[in-house]
Amino acid sequence: MSGNRLSGKVAVITGAASGIGRGTAERFAEEGAKLVLVDNNEARLLEAAEQLKAGGASVVAVAGDVSLSETADRVLEAGRDAFGGIDILFNNAGIMPVVSVLDMAEETWDSVMDVNLKAMFLLSKRVIPEMLKRGGGSIINTSSVMSTLTEPKYAGYTSSKAGIIGLTKAIAVEYAEEGVRCNAICPGWVDTELNQRLAVELGGMDKLYPIIKQQQPTGKMATVREIANVVLFLASDESTAITGASIFADGATSAFI
């Protein structure tokens, strides 16, 4: 499937070296977007960028820690210098420490808040003025079904993902009249490398799927492409009536538990 739903649009994608970020970069490229890819894993980021370029996409890569202001500055400069501005921001980078409240170090709490939430504020703050110059734009933030549901040892992750919902609503309300939309996606189980590693730790995918089936009524993980299609819709002009929303792409988990 390919088309021109994002033709002429410039999109920033964080966490672009793997998982949902990389899958979304591929999907955006198919629809004609020019890409600014961001990740802290420089080797994998450059690999992803080269693969997309080989397919004909226009791509620049920015390696760095998204929780730092200097990275946000470099992303803004890259979008301006390479493509003249930014129309779409997919705030997707995140980390997921698994540790109890009592065992969590203060540094771990700060790190998950910085990467998962503060980074979205920093990049949105840089990018919104560019979007306003271009008559509007779309920001999509990756939250999680765990913004409203949780398990033991996910206090930091759940708190950060809930915070993303609040930030998303605040940006949407503040810039609604000026054409900058902001929405969140809330995935459930997704077939990413993170969950594939979890399966290995549990002893194989046959050990993981009973857990998924207990939590996600579809009984299977969503594919990265399925999530990327949701992001594409929110980035495109097909969703201009939607802002301030949280889209649960979670296989009915939030309806079931």
From TrEMBL:
Record carries keyword Protein biosynthesis: no
GO biological process: one example: bile acid metabolic process
Family label: Belongs to the short-chain dehydrogenases/reductases (SDR) family.
A GO term, aspect molecular function: oxidoreductase activity
Keywords per UniProt: Oxidoreductase
Pfam families, A to Z: adh_short_C2
Keyword set includes Oxidoreductase: yes
Protein name, entry field: Short-chain dehydrogenase
